[in-house]
Structure prediction request, 85 residues.
Amino acid sequence: MVDKEALKEEIIGKWSIKPSLAAKLVDIIYFANSHQELTTEVIIREFQLTPTTAKRYLRQLVSFGFLQAEGANRNRKYRVLYNSN
Prediction:
């Protein structure tokens, strides 16, 4: 299994984001690995985020290549492209 701290450092170095944001993104990646697919609503509930914040985090993970978005708007689902195991 890939170490959370190592993945966080990789994200910080590669995309120049704050450590606190990188830690949240890593937590979402690890959560996503244990599910077939995710929706924004699942992330909102699991991480107690606002809809806007959850969507922003998911968009970032898609742009970084960790998740793949499928569908549009209300029907959008996310699948994991990165395996942390």
